[in-house]
Task: structure prediction
Amino acid sequence: MIRRILFGNHATQMPAIAQYLDHQRYEASFAPFDAVDLTRFDLVVPLRVEQIASARPAAALGRATLPDADLVALCDDKLAFNRWLIGNGFGDAVPELLGPSPDVFPYIRKTRQGDFGFGCQMIQGPGEDDGADTPDVFRQRAIVGADEYVLHLLRVGGRVRFQVAYRYDMGQPLGVRGHADRPSAIMPTDPGPVLDRCIAILDALGFEGTCCFNYKLEEGALRILELNPRFGGSLVGVVTDYVAAHLAAL
Result:
């Protein structure tokens, strides 16, 4: 029997999902969740944070696993999430938060919310920061290194049911992955001890659903850049395995 999967709309991920999903096992549809009958689908997968709220009726039907709304809001606020990590015993994994006028370089100026690198500015020396200091902006020590990592996790019923990690070679030590800087190579990787640390964070949060940690390693030590409470773009290549694991967990 072919299982029916409903994904949210996402301009770049939709064609990739349609390409990589095993169509002998699954039928993919893409639509706003409030515009279709969710009971027609076996699994509902938001692709953007703003789609999670409209997917909640599917979770009530047992056809999605989603993080609680307060956790979505926490993870979607980069500064609030950093402060949560610091206050809950994971502060050693947080690059130092800085004041409004740092004199130590390099650092990164970020908006509290943003996706695909929008709102991020790498500051490598005096005069590069535009000086704006508003409630939605904060500054943080930059982690130097060309390698950036992503760890995708699906947690259902308190257990990780699916995981995959990738290493991005940014080709430069201070790249901001996203619309401005693209990786020169993407390779599967073994997260090693990072996996247990990230699972401990999800346990402490009580997080259920799909997420991805973006991080770097500094002399082997974990430095978390952000936690996205959603399906991450580099999951598309293994979307069949992800869907199979999610359905099995439900």
Q: What stands out?
A: The two ends are 17 Å apart (CA to CA). The chain has three domains: 3-60, 69-94+144-249, 97-141. Residues 69-94+144-249 form a domain with the D-amino Acid Aminotransferase; Chain A, domain 1 fold (CATH 3.30.470.20). DSSP finds six helices and twelve strands in the chain.
